[in-house]
Amino acid sequence: MSSGSADIRRSVYLTLIAVAVAIAAAKVVGAENVYEPSRYTPPTPGAYSASPPDPPRIWPATRPDPTPMFSSNDKSRWATVRSLVDDGAYVIGQRQFADDDPSKYMDTGIVAEPQYKTLDIILGPPDTPQAGHFYSTKPPLFSTMIAGEYWLLKKAFGWSIVRDRWLVIPTILLTINVLPFAIYLILLARLIEMIGKTDFGKLLTFAAACFGTFLLTFSGTLNNHLPAAFCVLVAVYPIVKAMAENRPLHGWEYAICGFFAAFAATFDLPALALLAALGVPLLITQPRRTLLFFVPAALVPIAAYFATNYAALGEFTPAYEKFGSDWYNYSGSHWAKRGTPLGKGIDFNDEPTAVYAFHLLLGHHGWFSLTPVYLLSLGGLLGLSLRGFGEVRRFFGSSRTEATFTPGLFAAMTLTVSLVVFAFYLMQTQSYNYGGFTSGPRWLFWLIPLWILALPPAADRLAGSRLGRGLCAVLLGFSVLSVFYPAWNPWRSPWILQLLEFTGLLKY
What we know:
Blueprint lengths: L2 H27 L42 H16 L5 E5 L7 E4 L12 E3 L9 E4 L3 H18 L7 H31 L3 H13 L2 H4 L7 H21 L5 H17 L4 H14 L1 H27 L39 H9 L5 H4 L3 H14 L1 H9 L9 H21 L20 H5 L2 H8 L3 H19 L10 H8 L6
Antiparallel strand pairs: 1-2, 1-4, 3-4
């Protein structure tokens, strides 16, 4: 292609990055938890309500204190950040029992404050060193890192996350969500320029990366899914770049792959599948470089993950591994409602595995139904994988000094990792809640960069016809619709589920 065409594309990339990052920043600085009347019980019997809550949700009698925190998920993490800096501990609350009646208790501390009320907490059972103490259910490494930035803001400017929450929280989110999102898009633009073949395919793929994924939706709230996705892209960046340049990886590139693949797993544990999918082929073909660079780099975030977990709970086992135990099922716990008449709603969903699998792929929380542009990615992955059997064989049979990833091997890896992760969640029968109140299949978000990189082959093939380009545009349009539908709060049900509830076809 001509240099003039490349210059135009680079200008378009720059423009789209500016717009996408500005949208992400606006979500951060304009964040405020909004009370939507439709989510509350009508004040009078028979009053209109599109989908009355069950159990009933009562409209606040007094004006709630404004907050840029949205859900139990992010409040749980912010509580840990606040406690670490302000109190020097991972404990975010205490339960005190009455001396004369153990059934009576009073909760105090951060999680007892209205702004920090959260479902995502555990309580140390009796006869444990943590007895009577509340902790976040979220792995503490991420919160510990954020606490480091809050500590700097507090020391440098005297900001308090309580008094100055409208300064502290947006500043941190701009740092951990928006700035990395800009870097993520720059790296994607470079890779798309290398692997795409047509102007249309490249620009469609980059537009999807900017506006057609839920990474933009969740940019205004603290969550683990964005950093996981950013780490995944950085982990595979050297591999895709070397693949496009038809060269083996340098030693430092092994280290980048190992560190960021393992780092992604500290944010989203199933990303261990990616760590294995990258590490095993590299170990087979280049054992020396893998052991010298990839493995030591990968051990750094893994060690930090277990070290912070031990510092928080006094043990290496993550808090969410205690799901179903006394740590979760204490008196007053949201999760103790399971199996009781109060256990209603999507958090306590009990449906057949086949139904859950359908909705996770093509239904109300569907990977493909909410982001149909991934159908093009699937076509690209299948096409490359089918053509890549020979490439896979040559990769594992090549000499140790020449082995490099190929498009077919990379596509097969993406498909395999995706299938493993999907199967993992199908086996988690206690977690058939689609991630709770969330506008998309958030447990799969870390796979987004891998599926974006699979878009160009299919988009390139369809670029030659008007009908093909129109189909791509429609699929992208519906993807953008899903991304921008939760205008107020990303921790809301997807538009498909809300439509099903509104029509009475489905209700959790």
